[in-house]
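Annex B. Sample input.
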Amino acid sequence: MCRFLAYHGEPVYLDDLVCTPAHSLIHQSLHAAEAVTGTNGDGFGIGWYGERPEPGLFRDVRPAWSDENLRSLTRQIRARTFMAHVRASTGTATTRANCHPFAHGRLLFMHNGQIGGYGRIKRRLEALIPDHLYEARAGSTDSEALFLLALANGLEADPVGAMAETARIVRDLMRAAAIEEPLRLTAVLSDGESLTAFRWACDGHPPSLYWRETPTGVVVVSEPIDGCREGWTVVPKGGTLMARTGAPTRVIVAEAASGRIAA
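Annex B, continued. Sample output.
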């Protein structure tokens, strides 16, 4: 499983969260504590919102722990909203195009989890992505396919509804193919003005996801970056966290949504 981090609030330097903490994302790329594998060395990526509406992206196939460019950039980039991701491949190639986050227009998206038996439904799933969105597909991951299909289902206007509908479609494909492996996802979506994080799974075992409010904003992580669970809140199973500029952070257990992806 991959590890990730997202932030939304007042502008901060990326390295304050990505590199500096004791159990930072860089540390987790070698020593993840709550993942199936402790090493996440199949590439990394950062996405951030600066002065332009569209986000910036920096992704590479080198392990995060050994990339001096990543450390240099995070020391210089200051952003109000950003995402960072270290990848552990579930079978697809280690290429830049397969590294998270993924961008489309104003949106950034990253994912940790799996579509069970993805290779058996990949062609049918991709056939459901409209041509104008499929043209943007640069990689081969299930994560990018989920993002593009969710875009087709109205992700920008209704993140929770679109992700729920996408998960339902994927589960229907999995059932038709008699796939017994689960659909599990934690994911984060942003348009620069808001942040939405999901923690869903069809078997009741979604990957870990935590959040906390700081003096400057909201931080969402796969595992606590200070190495201590105290002060962090677990996003509940079937839960969705929503943070928006000028509004209180909300966590809801989306019963209708999680029910739609039940086994």
